Amino acid sequence: MSGGVEVVTSTATETSDPISHYFHQSPGHCSESLAAINRMRQNIQLCDVTLKVGIEGIHAHRVVLASTSPYFYAMFNDDMAEKAASEVVLHDVDHTALQLLVDYSYTGEIHITEDNVQVLLPASSLLQISSVREACCKFLMRQLHPSNCLGIRSFA
């Protein structure tokens, strides 16, 4: 008993003592819930914002974007025009990079390649998704070789 609350887990054995409180925890609850929200996004269900880059749109849920990106958190919470807009036009972001970052917001997974790192790094910096920005930097560091160091330096 801790602080007057008895914590019972699924491995506890039956006792004849009455339990005044019962604590239940489902280890996969958060990941399963986010996976369900991602399926809703893919089916364009309950989406409350469309991110536009050029003519293409990416449907999403504000709360998921705001939970991953301080940029979106500020956009959707501060007194900005985008706060209540159902469509948000983004400039200076590559559509492919934005799609990858939105996918990352829902899955926590992203594939960084030689083909996408040059658009993914600036997009993750702009949207303040530091974990992806750091992963891009690590990817570039692993790619560093005397034959390409000047090219990577000019990119940075």
From TrEMBL:
Keyword Oxidoreductase: no
Keyword vocabulary terms for this entry: Actin-binding, Kelch repeat, Repeat
Source organism: Graphocephala atropunctata
Name of protein: BTB domain-containing protein
Signal peptide per UniProt: none
BTB domain mapped to chain residues: 47-114
SMART domains: BTB
Entry keyword Transferase: no
